[in-house]
Design goal:
The complex is a heterodimer of chains A (about 90) and B (about 160). Chain A has 5 helices and no strands. Chain A has about 90 residues and is mostly helical. The two termini of chain A are about 20 Å apart. Chain B is an alpha+beta fold and about 160 residues long. Chain B has a 6-stranded antiparallel sheet, covered by helices on one side. In chain B, a hairpin with a 4-residue loop joins β1 and β2 (about 20-25). The chains are: A mainly alpha (about 90), B alpha+beta (about 160). The interface of A and B includes residues 54 and 61 of A.
């Protein structure tokens, strides 16, 4: 079974036509991979479906806009993968 | 339909909140300045207006699901297929249902039929936000009354 990061990286590669081998756990989806907010909706759609969760994009965006969080916390892929694992665990709890 | 005013939906025929689907009716007008250019001597409903019709139908479904507290805005159109011509005067039946309900966005699948025959379909993505101002909300509430929107929240 592939890791959460591997699944997310594959989704990003296929959704945004980005070479898979350029996507690393330390890649920032926005700053490094150049993914814009519309493309991220497609990614969120695919992640929601793949993991059976609902990424709280509005809450994350609000936290970033309010200065309570940084984009790195949610959009560096190893951190995004960790957030996904937390949401999956919370769903099963 | 009042094409020049982008009023594409005439009447909500069915709105099922539980099943997250909607059906509306829309009568293509016999006369419109749009048909003077599209096309001279062979008037057809433009594909972009058919997409707009599917988007507005999906939008009313989303407004209902969002309890008239948020406004959906079209963000992406995928797999739009214009399968057959639609001509002036034709009665459209437009169906839409939710494919995915995300955080601040939603994806719908919509289709237009004429007398049971599928004419076009598309997958549409919307962002939704709180109504940006009272003018827009007021306009949407007025439109809702006109088209028989059954789930209007108290203003």
């Amino acid at each position: 079974m592939s890791s959460t990061f591997d699944q997310v990286a594959t989704i990003i590669a296929e959704t945004c036509d980005i070479p898979r081998d350029t996507i690393t756990p330390d890649s920032h989806a926005i700053d490094d991979l150049g993914i814009d907010s519309l493309d991220f909706l497609d990614i969120a759609f695919a992640i929601d479906k793949a993991f059976g969760i609902k990424l709280p994009l509005e809450k994350w965006t609000q936290e970033v806009n309010d200065g309570k969080a940084t984009t790195e916390q949610y959009f560096v892929l190893k951190n995004l993968s960790a957030r996904i694992d937390e949401l999956v665990a919370a769903k099963g709890a | 339909m009042r094409l020049e005013y982008f009023q594409m939906v005439d009447r909500i025929a069915d709105l099922d909140i539980g099943e997250r689907r909607i059906t509306v009716s829309a009568q293509v007008p016999q006369q419109s300045s749009i048909f003077e250019g599209h096309f001279p001597g062979y008037p057809l409903m433009p594909g972009v207006l058919l997409i707009e019709t599917m988007a507005q139908t999906s939008g009313w479904l989303l407004i209902a699901l969002l309890k008239f507290e948020r406004m959906p805005f079209l963000a992406a159109v995928k797999e739009a297929k214009m399968r057959d011509f639609i001509k002036p005067g034709e009665p459209l039946t437009v169906d839409a249902h939710i494919v995915h309900d995300g955080s601040g966005f939603a994806v719908t699948a919509a289709r237009i039929s004429v007398e049971g025959k599928l004419k076009c379909n598309a997958e549409l993505t919307f962002r939704h936000t709180p109504f940006p101002n009272t003018d827009l909300r007021g306009h949407m509430e007025q439109m809702a009354r006109q088209i028989g929107f059954p789930e209007q929240a108290p203003s």
